[in-house]
Design a protein that fits this description.
mainly alpha; 11 helices; 287 residues
Length: 287
């Protein structure tokens, strides 16, 4: 439970840092790419063993980590576009609702069983995510834009399923830092290639604020994945419980941080969502 709590903490800090990006006018794209570089370096520093770049491609999880790095940066860009066109609440709901995908896959592939109370808890969790995220000025859907939240939903679910698969099949506990570093390194390389292509039209200039923002984001971003992977290795809970608690607790904690740090307004629906979130976590975790 400590690993899961730390994953929730660091994931929630990411939302706070993103909020600070808008306050201090940090360019998100460049900060995100810097963040991936920092997260990659963090993983290599924490790895307790000799690191040889030539040996990493020989690991059984290497190609999966590269694919996940590509998936990470693609899904993030789709999330950003969804936020811009349909609103942050729509992107948030689509991301966290994706917990359904690893829950269903866990039941199908790993024969994970859910009691009636846990199923009720998961249904309440989905309801909680919606009500905790919805805002009064929600965006009106355009049929042309419906594909965006659908892609966010599928992509976020695919990331969770991939993490579970890699942890279950090919990953030892001692290799968690190296595996995480490889994922973020893959994302960093893709981001750098994108900047290099883009700089042909618009010259690239190093901005100190973007670098600092990326450094501040990179460390919690790394640990959010690292501790989630460690939580998945804990046999006291199955993956459906872990992903449900993780996603709902992030919504709950980040919402509370928004209230405390940024004085964000909460509607009656939002408070109702928080209450449902607490109930759903208790049902899924305790029964």
């Amino acid at each position: 439970m400590i690993d899961l709590a730390l994953s929730v903490l660091f994931s929630s800090l990411i939302f706070v840092i993103f909020k600070l990006f808008s306050v201090y006018k940090v360019q998100t794209l460049y900060a995100i790419i810097t963040n991936y570089v920092v997260a990659c370096i963090t993983g290599f520093i924490l790895y307790n063993g000799p690191v040889s770049i030539n040996q990493v491609p020989n690991k059984g999880w290497f190609w999966g980590a590269l694919a996940m790095g590509f998936l990470f940066i693609i899904v993030f860009n789709i999330m950003a576009k969804t936020s811009q066109k349909l609103g942050v609440s729509v992107a948030s709901v689509a991301t966290k609702m994706s917990l359904v995908i690893p829950v269903v896959i866990g039941m199908m592939l790993y024969n994970e069983k859910l009691s009636a109370l846990k199923i009720i808890g998961i249904i309440l969790a989905l309801t909680a995510v919606y009500f905790a995220s919805v805002k009064k000025k929600s965006a009106t859907f355009n049929k042309k834009n419906l594909l965006l939240p659908l892609l966010v939903f599928i992509g976020s679910g695919a990331i969770d399923v991939s993490l579970k698969y890699m942890q279950e099949i090919q990953l030892s506990s001692g290799e968690l830092p190296l595996f995480s570093a490889t994922i973020f390194g893959s994302s960093a390389i893709i981001g750098i290639i994108f900047i290099a292509v883009k700089s042909r039209k618009t010259p690239f200039k190093i901005n100190l604020k973007n670098v600092i923002g990326g450094i501040l984001l990179g460390v919690p971003n790394y640990f959010s994945i690292f501790f989630l992977l460690r939580a998945l290795q804990n046999n006291s809970m199955n993956s459906s419980q872990i992903f449900t608690i993780n996603n709902v607790a992030i919504v709950l904690f980040s919402t509370l941080l928004g209230i405390l740090l940024f004085k964000e307004h909460m509607s009656v629906k939002n408070w109702g969502g928080i209450a449902l979130a607490v109930i759903s976590i208790l049902l899924v975790a305790l029964f």
